[in-house]
Specification:
Length: 481
């Protein structure tokens, strides 16, 4: 595996591009050094002689249908790695994000337009409104990513886009845009699994992080404990039987009447600093389940009841409430956060033991996804991980919450080993059916960790990423022998 270095500028400037819809645009300031470096390799990489403008049926491109067989021409080639430049597009939930990343891990640009006002208005993500907001800004976000990297589409080697899991309506906006760019400029495409992207962005940050490693991925919709064996191959040790922790943070923030514009998590984390974390007695979920699964629905109910018992009025903003009421809200926030994270700690401890039995060479545990930007979460999990003689790898907050860098980077990782689709046609038929995977498991379930409660409730819609890649690998082996 090629060693990478990380040069993402720590300064992220936020400014509004569409005051009318109150989008917030965040962009990394690409350093002059990066721009200079980029000019040195302006020549397009040799990835594209394979493609022709209407090359969907080109014999040079094997039709890969996202992660199936492709020509493995880039592996172990540092030269090609350094010259690859991938655009990543992310629209699976409420952030419209794009970024451009080089094969050696340099982030050339990062742009995010978040739906802050919509989030505050609806107290969560409303799919139709989110889709409209993505559609309004997607062209501008992608153009800004190109401009900030000082590139045009012609300089790209490939386009990576999140195809699932997520909200169909929202995924569609990103995939449509990615296909337009790829079709017009004859670029190969990589369909990215959103949760794999959360995990793999840690490899862009931490040079030592190689497979196998453990990962806890905590976002608004997922609470996953996985063992990453290799690129695209994961064993799912645990998941949530109901809600994810991010959802519990969001609801707690909403019921406490907090400002949701940055999503609920940061608001609860901030208020919790003022509170007594042992003042409200909440039960740690699933104490008697000797597995690695999570449940946050019951804790949410406990929080709601505590809020009702203290007669907290969520319509009254924090800024205009009494000192006593503010104190009550802070105590609930702190107590919720403590117990919610205790649940994470207990399950992570067990998952590390399981993972070390399966892969004794593991050295790292990645904690990523929006909730991993929480300082208390990081601190507590660092203790657990260190006690087990592992090293915690947490991407910086800007790469923990949804972003385009993680998609571009994951696209690069797969592209390098030949997993990509050929360029789509320059003009897509009106009735083209996009390959969207709103419910798409990442790994295969570890038998010991299976939860009856969950498997009865959630029907799988799409085969897991891991099963697709394993099937593809064995097909490759068969054709080679
Ligand atoms: O990964 P992400 O950006 O989007 C999804 O894939 O869902 O995660 C968003 C979730 C939200 O529920 C948000 O409240 C939570 O991450 N989050 C946090 C923090 N920052 C974001 N939760 C706790 N503390 C934070 N500082
Ligand atoms: Zn996410």
């Amino acid at each position: 595996m090629v060693r990478l270095f990380f040069t993402l500028s720590p300064t992220i400037s936020r400014f509004s591009i569409y005051p009318g819809i109150s989008s917030v645009l965040a962009a990394t300031n690409t350093s002059l050094r990066l721009r200079r470096q980029h000019h040195q390799f302006k020549t397009k990489t040799p990835t594209l002689p394979l493609a022709s403008p209407s090359s969907s049926s080109s014999p040079n491109f094997k039709r890969t249908r996202f992660y199936s067989t492709g020509a493995r021409i880039f592996s172990n080639s540092n030269y090609f790695d350094d010259n690859l430049v991938v655009l990543g597009i992310e629209t699976s939930c409420d952030d419209t994000a794009a970024a451009i990343v080089r094969g050696n891990g340099e982030v050339l640009s990062q742009v995010i337009s978040s739906q802050a006002e919509l989030l505050a208005q609806y107290g969560g993500v409303a799919p139709k409104q989110a889709e409209e907001a993505h559609s309004r800004v997607i062209d501008k976000v992608v153009q800004d990513a190109l401009d900030r990297a000082n590139l045009t589409e012609k300089d790209l080697s490939a386009v990576a886009v999140t195809i699932g899991p997520g909200l169909s309506l929202c995924l569609r906006v990103g995939v449509r845009k990615a296909r337009r760019v790829a079709g017009e400029f004859s670029l190969p495409m990589v369909g990215v699994h959103h949760m794999e992207a959360h995990a793999l962005v840690a490899r862009l940050v931490e040079q030592e992080l190689s497979f196998p490693f453990m990962a806890l991925l905590v976002s608004g919709g997922h609470n996953l404990l996985v063992l990453a064996h290799k690129l695209g191959q994961y064993t799912q040790l645990g998941t949530t039987v109901d809600d994810a922790l991010g959802e519990a943070f969001d609801k707690t923030a909403k019921w406490l009447g907090l400002d949701m514009r940055r999503s609920g998590g940061p608001a609860v984390e901030e208020l919790a600093l003022e509170g007594d974390a042992k003042s409200v007695k909440f039960n740690v979920p699933m104490k008697n389940h000797k597995d690695c699964n999570f449940s946050y629905a019951g804790l949410k109910t406990q929080v709601r009841l505590a809020i009702e018992a203290k007669e907290i009025d969520c319509k009254c903003p924090l800024s205009s409430t009494t000192n006593g009421d503010r104190r009550n809200r802070a105590d609930i926030a702190a107590s919720f956060q403590r117990v919610a994270v205790l649940h994470l700690e207990e399950k992570c401890e067990r998952a590390i033991d399981w993972a070390l039995e399966l892969e004794p060479s593991i050295k790292h545990m990645v904690v990523s996804g929006g909730v991993a930007s929480n300082k208390y979460v990081r601190l507590r999990l660092n203790n657990i991980v260190e006690n087990k003689n592992l090293k915690l790898v947490c991407p910086p907050p800007s790469l923990c919450t949804d972003n385009g860098v993680m998609v571009a980077w994951t696209g690069l990782e797969h592209f390098r080993v030949g997993r990509y689709d050929p360029p789509p046609p320059a003009i897509e038929p009106d009735d083209y059916v996009y390959d969207l995977r709103p419910r798409w498991p990442l790994g295969e379930e570890y038998a010991r960790g299976r939860s009856e409660a969950r498997s009865m409730r959630s029907a799988r819609i799409h085969p897991s990423l891991t099963s697709i890649i394993r099937a593809d690998d064995s097909l490759q082996q068969q054709t080679q022998t």
